[in-house]
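Hi, here's the filled form for the chain we discussed.

Project: internal
Contact: R.S.
Residues: 264
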Amino acid sequence: MLVAMWSWIAASSAPALADCPADAGTLRAEVDAALAAYQDWAWPKFEASVAAARRDVACLDEVAPPELARDLHVVTAFAAFRADDDEQMEAALRGVLAVDPSWRPTVDQAAPGSTIHAAFELARRHRPEQGRVVLGDGAWFVDGRAGAETVSLGRCAVVQRRDPSGALESWYLTGTKLPGDLLARATPPTSAPPAATDPRRRRATWIAAGGLGAGLAAAGSLAYAAHMKQVYTSAATAEEASQAYRANYFWGMTGYTVGALGAH
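And the returned structure, exactly as it came back:
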């Protein structure tokens, strides 16, 4: 299935000559078939429908309506889920929400606790505004919307251009980079898209901080005990004992503070 997913990306990133042209109605039927097969766990039919959509998305001879673009991104997310490709899954779901912010997966499509449900929650919190590419001359459409001047590199998108002769070119962006022939018609991106913050990574960071804090606390306590033993057994002055206490108390409390934050 991973091979099928990467075949999707390779085939849909740039206009193709084989099996062209294709109309939006044909692509609509293929996407609907993929959605129904995914719902029924009919994986051979799902893969066949994805392959058909892969073949035709770059051959469109008409502008894809926004609803079709949205559902194409949904199919891409499902295919990425099947391929265990978290990055592609999140980029596809960001594309879905860019077209339709109200879209939500059903429980059957993304059960709570599943990786695709987690990817959807990440996509909801990260709407890419950076990494936008300014499109060049011609009439551009992004996810079926006319008058587009930019497109984000941080999400999936159906990008189409109608040249002065009326010919239409179509690309499917996967949320990573632009196809070479599309890049030739655009200016460089303003900046790289920001990486989504996975709550699991934040948790791992806090756990690491907790470990560091516990280490500092233990080190501070041991150092304090050893130092005070040395101070008192060497008949130190009260001032020396006070200075030792303040220094080691500082490191001990620093460790406990960091440890408490890590455990939060």
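Let me know if anything looks off before we file it.
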